[in-house]
């Protein structure tokens, strides 16, 4: 059985930052992810709001972060964690799908992020990351003075839509029910001259030539023979996110929607177990807030381990 001071589950911005801070605190660190390092940012065409890097592709930023980890000697492995078990001494056992080897850790940081809910319709896979996005703050600027469509009617859709309406030529909101965001925000966005809202609609297809998205097709939910096609340069989907925390939900540290409940120091109710990044319950989910979470979590893990060793002596 391999033993580490710190095991980090998830190699997105939060996890990689935690690994950097953990190694620099002289901890033995293992970073695990079932996919390529980078998390959701590898699906983002361009990032322009991460300080110091200017405009950069999400995959490029992820690679720079990962190379930084490797330069510092972070141990990385492709593993799918499917269970974390707590021992009586508060150490943690980490189980993975790939093999029967169990990993033991004094501390664990869960930074597994979220996955966006998708429509699973024609054209979605083809245009995601280029013309279909899930982050207006990340990708909105490239649609300045262009036409965009938002799919969804909740707070995220309306809040991000308000931002997009201020920089785009036109904004079309398509939602399967009514707008469900707070009434003041809904009234405001509907009052904007360049915004049109379609309610009780079902999006059925993303249209394009294989390289460039050109339109969104949707039907009336009560009469699917009523079909509409809206021309657009880009689409933002806000139909919900799913935290990737299924493997720890038995530990009692997640809320009703599956997000980890962590305090301002990234601590959960389990000693030595921390959350970081998009998988925790929080207000703003951005690369910069994820890296901050990772740094805080690693510092707290280091302090926890120092206390353990001090008490042993």
UniProtKB/TrEMBL annotation:
> Residue limits of the FAD/NAD(P)-binding domain?
4-294
Q: Record's InterPro entries?
A: FAD/NAD-bd_sf, FAD/NAD-binding_dom, Ferredoxin-NADP_redctase_2, Pyr_nucl-diS_OxRdtase_2_AS
UniProt entry tagged with the keyword Transit peptide: no
Tell me the Gene3D superfamilies matching this sequence: FAD/NAD(P)-binding domain (3.50.50.60)
Q: Which Pfam families match?
A: Pyr_redox_2
Task: Please indicate if the UniProt record lists Flavoprotein as a keyword.
Answer: yes
Q: Which keywords, in A-to-Z order, does the entry hold?
A: Disulfide bond, FAD, Flavoprotein, Oxidoreductase, Redox-active center
**Domain of life, per the record?**
Bacteria
Q: What is this protein called?
A: FAD-dependent oxidoreductase
């Amino acid at each position: 059985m391999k033993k580490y001071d710190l095991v980090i589950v998830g190699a997105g911005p939060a996890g990689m930052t935690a690994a950097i801070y953990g190694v620099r605190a002289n901890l033995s660190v293992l970073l695990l992810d079932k996919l390529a390092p980078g998390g959701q940012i590898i699906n983002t065409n361009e990032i322009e709001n991460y300080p110091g890097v200017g405009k950069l592709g999400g995959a490029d930023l992820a690679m720079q972060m990962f190379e930084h980890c490797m330069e510092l000697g972070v141990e990385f492995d492709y593993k799918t964690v499917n269970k974390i078990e707590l021992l009586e001494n508060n150490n943690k056992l980490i189980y993975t799908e790939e093999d029967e080897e169990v990993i033991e850790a004094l501390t664990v940081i869960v930074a597994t992020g979220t996955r966006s809910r998708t429509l699973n319709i024609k054209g979605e896979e083809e245009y995601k990351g280029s013309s279909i996005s899930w982050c207006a703050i990340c990708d909105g600027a490239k649609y300045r003075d262009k036409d965009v469509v938002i799919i969804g009617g909740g707070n995220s859709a309306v809040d991000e839509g308000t931002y997009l309406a201020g920089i785009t030529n036109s904004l079309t909101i398509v939602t399967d029910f009514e707008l469900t965001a707070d009434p003041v925000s809904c009234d405001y966005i509907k009052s904007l001259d360049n915004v049109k809202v379609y309610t009780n609609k079902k999006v059925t297809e993303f249209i394009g030539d294989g390289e460039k998205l050109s339109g969104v097709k949707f039907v009336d939910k009560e009469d699917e023979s009523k079909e509409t096609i809206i021309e657009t340069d880009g689409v933002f989907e806000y139909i919900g996110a799913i935290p990737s925390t299924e493997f720890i939900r038995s530990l009692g540290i997640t809320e009703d929607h599956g997000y980890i409940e962590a305090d301002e120091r990234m601590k959960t109710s389990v000693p030595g177990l921390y959350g970081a990044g998009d998988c925790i319950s929080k207000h703003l989910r951005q690369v910069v807030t994820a890296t901050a979470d990772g740094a805080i979590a690693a510092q707290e893990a280091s302090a926890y381990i120092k206390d353990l060793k001090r008490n042993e002596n």
